[in-house]
Amino acid sequence: MIREYKTIEEVAGPLMLVKKVDGVKYDELGEIELPSGEVRRCRVLEIDGSNVLVQLFENSAGINLANSKVRFSGHGVQLPVSRDMLGRVFSGMGEPIDGGPKILPEATPDVNGSPINPAARRYPSEFIQTGISTIDGLNTLVRGQKLPIFSGSGLPHANLAAQIARQAKVRTGGVTDDTKFAVVFAAVGITFEEADFFISDFKKTGALDRTVMFMNLASDPAIERITAPRMALTAAEYLAYTCDMHVLVIITDITNYAEALREVSAARKEVPGRRGYPGYLYTDLATMYERAGRKMGSEGSITMIPILTMPEDDKTHPIPDLTGYITEGQIILSREIYRKGYLPPVDVLPSLSRLKDKGIGKGKTREDHADTMNQLFFSYARGKDAKELMVVLGEAALTPVERLYAKFSDAFEEQYINQGFYENRTIEETLDLGWSLLRILPRSEMKRIKPQLLDKYWPVEE
After folding, report:
1. Of the candidates 365, 296, 322, which has an alpha carbon nearest to the alpha carbon of residue 144?
2. Which of the 8 DSSP states describes residue 276?
3. Each residue of 326-361: pLDDT tens digit?
4. Helix, strand or coil for residue 443?
5. How many whole angstroms separate alpha carbon 376 and alpha carbon 169?
6. 145 in Cβ contact with 326 (< 8 Å)
7. Cα distance between residue 401 and residue 382, in whole Å
8. In whole angstroms, what is the distance from residue 380 CA to residue 294 CA?
9. Which residue stretches of 206-334 are H helix?
10. Rounded to 5 degrees, what are φ and ψ at 222?
11. In what order do the strands lie in the sheet with 15-18?
12. Would you say residue 459 has pLDDT above 80?
């Protein structure tokens, strides 16, 4: 039997203290009924004997301590899940906001799922095609991987997130297979304009049909920002491990999530860690990131792309720093490339996918992928060095080969990096473009490509 309590002692911001409570558990969901009949939701944050500290999902305005009642549900925050979620748009608390009916659930799991047991993990080894050359060709995304995107304030990470969600495809044995592929897209702490952009873009391009969207606005309560990513991961786990689908989870913006976590921590008067963030930020992020992967005994998989903005473009800021420890690489957006007008402005040299070599090669992408990737990295890096030398000493001081590398660097940025947000390149088109750009350099400089591959792919006229 559900008990009701009229023992609210204190309300401070998003927190409320309830005394003389019995049988309540950590993370349990509760309801506050106001004298007017309005019901607001809360979640148990802390238990001290018979005293319970709860966090409000909505604001605390209008709560009368003497006449308001609190009751606890006996379970945590849950999400009704079903295959019918595909093509739908939900709030950060899992409520439909697209005008459609409520989901008839096939299950209602708790949103605070567990990270995958390391002993039960299968190693990521299959290629996911995003249609973006700088990712597919140089920092390949592998099914089951966690590959974050580090952006800066004002850079178009929202457009990049939408492009990946639209274009991503699973390839099995070198052949595209979309029959069991789905996208779970969670927007955390975004503006009304960004929400309209995402929803209209997905509808216009048809990407919404295979997508489950969770929209949390900046005007929503902080607790909803903390819950929204977990809602998305719970939906992804159902689609992956119950429906045997390959799910790509995109979460933007993790920085807004961490700010909400800091806000709640401050309200609880916890001892702050680096830059005021709670000391358990690493653990908290890991409980989300480690829910992605592949499980033994399951055909499905969860691949995660968390997107975060680095305050002041600082890679050592706690959010990107801790994210980098947990995930397998990072894609970094460059303000310098963005100023040149090249989109998406991916800075390929500091970007890294630690699992890229596991998802490329014959039978996955193409036999020449690894060698051309290494040659493009080397050539672009040497071209950048040549351009820096040119600024100091002038073009006349460069050797003929160094001038060719400088020319290659410009062409690489203009053609390979710059493709816009609506051009979808197959991996074959990306690899062919790489070979075309390498033609700027003499064949004798192709020292990172095997001779048999050079004979096969180097243009006939050469």
Report:
1. 296
2. G
3. 999 999 999 999 999 999 999 999 999 999 999 999
4. helix
5. 24
6. no
7. 10
8. 34
9. 222-241, 254-267, 281-289, 318-326
10. -60, -35
11. 4-5, 69-72, 29-33, 39-48, 51-56, 15-18, 8-12
12. no
Would you state the structure tokens that stand for residue 216, as one six-digit string? 């949390």
Q: Could you give the dihedral angle defined by the CA atoms of residues 320, 340, 167 and 352, in that order, rounded to the nearest 10 degrees? A: -40
What is the length of the chain?
A: 462
Per the structure block, which two tokens stand in for 345? 């402005």
Strand partners, 447: none
Whether residue 319 contacts residue 148, with contact meaning beta carbons closer than 8 Å, is answered with no
Q: What pTM did the predictor assign?
A: 0.94
The pairing of strands 181-190 and 246-252 is parallel
Q: Give me the pLDDT at residue 267, please.
A: 81
Contact indicator for 290, 116 with CB cutoff of 8 Å: yes
Q: Residue 70: what are its φ and ψ, rounded to 5°?
A: -120, 135
Q: Say how many Å lie between the first and final Cα of the chain, rounded.
A: 82
- 3-state class (DSSP) for residue 113: coil
Task: Match 């549900």 to its residue by tokens.
Answer: 73
Strand 181-190 vs strand 211-217: parallel, antiparallel, or unpaired?
Answer: parallel
Q: What is the DSSP string of 342-404?
A: -SS-B-TTT-EETTGGGS-STTTS-TTHHHHHHHHHHHHHHHHHHHHHHHHH-GGGS-HHHHH
